[in-house]
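User: Could you check the structure of this?
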Amino acid sequence: MACGKSQIRTPVVWHLNSSSVLPWHKVTSDGTLVLLYVDHSAQGNYSCHDDRGLLLHSVKLRLGHPPGLLSISCQVPNHTHVRCSWVESVKTFLPAKYSASFRGNGKEWRPCVVDVIRKHCDVDHPFFWTTIHTLRVTETNALGSETTSVRIRLNELLKPDPPESLLVETLEGYPKRLVVSWNIPSSWPLHDAFPLMFQIRYRPQGSIYWSEVYSEHSPVVIFDALAGHLHQFQIRVRDEVNSESQWSDWTPVFLIRPWEVSSTPESTEDRFADYFFPFNTKPETSTAKSHNSVHPEDEGNLGLVILLVLFSVVILTTVLSLIFVLWVRQRRRNHVTKQELTSMVKMKSMPI
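Assistant: Sure, the predicted structure tokens are below.
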């Protein structure tokens, strides 16, 4: 760095950020400062002074690199908009400016509107059905410039945004049915001209297997939900006409349990009593307490006792019936044997 107004053999003193401490350096006879080894800590404001301390010259040092090629990617959320973004392959450490242009095959170049901070550019209403498009982006800094060009196919990059407002609702009275509804992506304005295909997937929570349903319209009724289980739902979308387009990302998981009969827990005794005695045996609720009222647990125990008594009577009746049948059969056998013996005695007593 030259000291602007210094004369040959005039001694000068260099400062960095108002300090006399400098990186490894030397000063030539004409007052030029030569830094022998630098890194980013050497950046700052350098100034040279004469032997009386008078400021002769100042310069700001900033270290960096010339631009390199960019890594460019493009997103096509619908048929009327293209957004391309880029990442530097070389970290220049210097402020840069960007310019971008876009054209379809055989068409004229048109500007791609640049957002320098976010490092992307936008094109509205491209010639979508042109087979190949070209984008070129130029990066410029104090040390030079570099232009990067990419060729893209919009029909293959078409990827809608995910559907919005996914909602899954129960259907009263149907423990295996769920109603799925959603809205088309707000970034897809031409939904009438370019219809969409939606893919719904769902599964009971904890399962590794998804069930899938395809539909062009909302809502959709699911008929095979697993009753009583929590389910996971997701949906995605793609352009129905363009078979080369991509599916959108899946929406966040929506959790829901199918409709269930609301019931209060009851004891085992109560369930047995209700099964055998379906009529209501419980006393009506009253604001005044009665000394003769039966506690619900006592009613359950009473029902169980009656059940056991009936069961014992049935068993006893069955056993007595079997004994009676066996007794009758044995008596008939004895009677037949007695008749045979009588016949044999009569035959022996007859004269030959």
